[in-house]
C-alpha cells in the first residue's frame, strides 16, 4: 500500500523542525561567549576554595620573586 504524499511531506517537515531545534541547541551550547563565561565562573568558584586561594597566593609569591630577581640582575 503506497504512502500518502501529504503524510510523507508532514513527516519530512517534522524531521526538519526537529533537526533545526537540535542544531539551535548545539549552537547555543558551543557558543564561544557562553563557554568563556562558564569557564570564568568555574575559575572564580575554584579561586574561592581553600586550594584555589593557596594556589593563587603561591603563584603571586612566585611571580613577585621572579620580578624582584630580574630587577636585581638588571641593575648588576
From TrEMBL:
The keyword Membrane applies. InterPro entries: DUF3618 (IPR022062). The chain crosses the membrane at residues 51-68. Pfam families: DUF3618. It comes from the Bacteria. Keywords: Membrane, Transmembrane, Transmembrane helix. This is DUF3618 domain-containing protein.
Amino acid at each position: 500500500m503506497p504512502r500518502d504524499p501529504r503524510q510523507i511531506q508532514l513527516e519530512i517537515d517534522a524531521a526538519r523542525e526537529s533537526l533545526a531545534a537540535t542544531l539551535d541547541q548545539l549552537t547555543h551550547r558551543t557558543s564561544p561567549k557562553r563557554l568563556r563565561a562558564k569557564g570564568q565562573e568555574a575559575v572564580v568558584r575554584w579561586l574561592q576554595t581553600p586550594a584555589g586561594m593557596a594556589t593563587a597566593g603561591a603563584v603571586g609569591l612566585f611571580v613577585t620573586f621572579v620580578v624582584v630577581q630580574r630587577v636585581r640582575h638588571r641593575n648588576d
